[in-house]
């Protein structure tokens, strides 16, 4: 075991993938000698050469178009979009091409070798365009897998799984945790399953569901609730598409209450999907309405970021209301 | 490049350069003076022409079938057969082709059978695409022809990426991507050319400048002298060719391929042609262009030109032309009848290939759908057939399929 922050864990995963398979190619803006603006690809060009780790011109639609072609050819393309806020020029390539490649060709061709890595989320004073959580645009797209790690250990295991997965994966990295999250990470190769949620804390009174950086916030709220004698069950979804309905439903059968929390705006957010599915599955077991604690339905603010974000206190309040419903 | 400093301001527009059009055959099928015949064998030249002819006949028949209501939609390659087939004939058969949608001639050249065309057009159980895409969205893995995607220009940066992979694989292959002059307005075109040039990728960007993007004439598509000058902005090799001259297209593409594969450099080819047919079966060109304009281009028909050249060489005859046309028409009609009668793809194909493996969530959705179809089979004849339900007798049923 080694102590790593999330960037080191991601870098380590990429290193392992590139060492193991010469078909693995990493590219994106500033990804080459500089190692990416966050340094997730540090030293990879030095180690594996310019042909396998390189800078691209500044053109997101081109990066993903190129990545789709490269993956269709049989390479394992790991493309970086520098900030999730800038993924939208590539939206057509991701939604109309990446996601539909296998289906539209009747499985003659596929881009399963593609992984798109991109930092997302707020809490870093990034304002409108360095803070967004665009996951729900992509969870509405059959053919994609959407994965979000919560800590360095998860990041390494899930990224290795994403790179080797037979389907294209959008890998959203909580950039607030890049250096803030530090933990024990095995130095050797390992994978964590895509499509399986993880119960990270057991409890009997209420189920709290989230993913990525929000797990830290949710856990803090659970501690506050714990002090009031409320036992929270905390679930990290890890994969949003496909998502693990069974694990969440099992928990709600037990607790009868659920809160889902994400940074992205409320309306059309992925919490709505979870709430709808769980009320179908668990209707007769519910003791109180399923609640969403999310960002506001506004663009991401700057100075009032703290007020906008669904922090531990907002979640704690929602827990109290749910339990006292 | 060395910076040259001047001390008086001067502005350039690109008019300082003029891009010539490479051509070998005149409309009568004779070599222009000073033109050199490409080294094409009799066999190869005949194969090239036969693919052009087969494409023309397939298009005529299928457009007629669409008009009879037998087919939902169709798009013709008519007028552009030389550009498309000439390019395909200059490639290695294992080079990847990533087309836009009007390039069935390239697939014909590579040996896609009439049956294979028909199965796709009718979306039957033998369609490789499993009946998921509209007619003309062909694809063939064995023939290295990427499945067509409707969104315009998306294949262009993909071709750059595909060719980058080919370069790393080091097997001496390249990718050729077709697109129209209209699609070249899309951002994906510019992204693709720039990345190909920066990363030194063996890709050929083949623009079919056929004068129209649906109804929009090229004069309203760009202000410059066509698409070719854009290559300068990306420091890329470029050639403009008479797109109705199969020999010139062949030779230009052959040499472009050499540059791509031997030097790992992208090449842009602009083939000047004309879309003689409507954009698609849903379009009516009489609303936006004059018949006289079409007639002027009919005289320059690429098939006639190639046919005349072959005849002069003694490699083709009027009798052969008549027999071939007759045989092809009959084959198209017979295969069409077969393809029409084949059943649609099974209900399960609704959820396969979304992912490599069917997810539990998708399986649940299919199971629910099956239960529903069992209740109302008349409303879903294809699904009911796939579930082996006899219509009108089976109105309800319990259990899962």
Automatic annotation (TrEMBL), chain A:
Enzyme Commission (EC) number: 1.2.4.4
CDD domains (alphabetical): TPP_PYR_E1-PDHc-beta_like
Enzyme class: oxidoreductase
Entry keyword set: Oxidoreductase, Thiamine pyrophosphate
Any Pfam family matching the protein: Transket_pyr
Cofactor(s) the protein requires to work: thiamine diphosphate
Segments traversing the membrane: none
Domain Transketolase-like pyrimidine-binding: 4-180
SUPFAM superfamilies: Thiamin diphosphate-binding fold (THDP-binding), TK C-terminal domain-like
InterPro entries reported in the protein's UniProt record: THDP-binding (IPR029061), Transketo_C/PFOR_II (IPR009014), Transketolase-like_Pyr-bd (IPR005475), Transketolase_C (IPR033248)
This protein's encoding gene: bkdA2
Keyword Transcription regulation: no
Organism of provenance: Vreelandella lutescens
Name used for this protein in its record: 3-methyl-2-oxobutanoate dehydrogenase (2-methylpropanoyl-transferring)
TrEMBL record, chain B:
Major enzyme class: oxidoreductase
Catalysis performed (reactions): N(6)-[(R)-lipoyl]-L-lysyl-[protein] + 3-methyl-2-oxobutanoate + H(+) = N(6)-[(R)-S(8)-2-methylpropanoyldihydrolipoyl]-L-lysyl-[protein] + CO2
Keywords, in A-Z order: Oxidoreductase, Thiamine pyrophosphate
EC number: 1.2.4.4
Domain annotation Dehydrogenase E1 component: ranges: 50-346
InterPro entries: Alpha-ketoacid_DH_E1_comp, DH_E1, THDP-binding
Cofactor: thiamine diphosphate
Pfam family, one: E1_dh
Transmembrane regions listed in the UniProt entry: none
This protein's record includes keyword Zinc-finger: no
Keyword Oxidoreductase recorded: yes
Stated family: Belongs to the BCKDHA family.
Function: The branched-chain alpha-keto dehydrogenase complex catalyzes the overall conversion of alpha-keto acids to acyl-CoA and CO(2). It contains multiple copies of three enzymatic components: branched-chain alpha-keto acid decarboxylase (E1), lipoamide acyltransferase (E2) and lipoamide dehydrogenase (E3).
Record protein name field: 2-oxoisovalerate dehydrogenase subunit alpha
Taxonomic source organism: Vreelandella lutescens
Origin organism lineage: Bacteria, Pseudomonadati, Pseudomonadota, Gammaproteobacteria, Oceanospirillales
Gene name for this UniProt entry: bkdA1
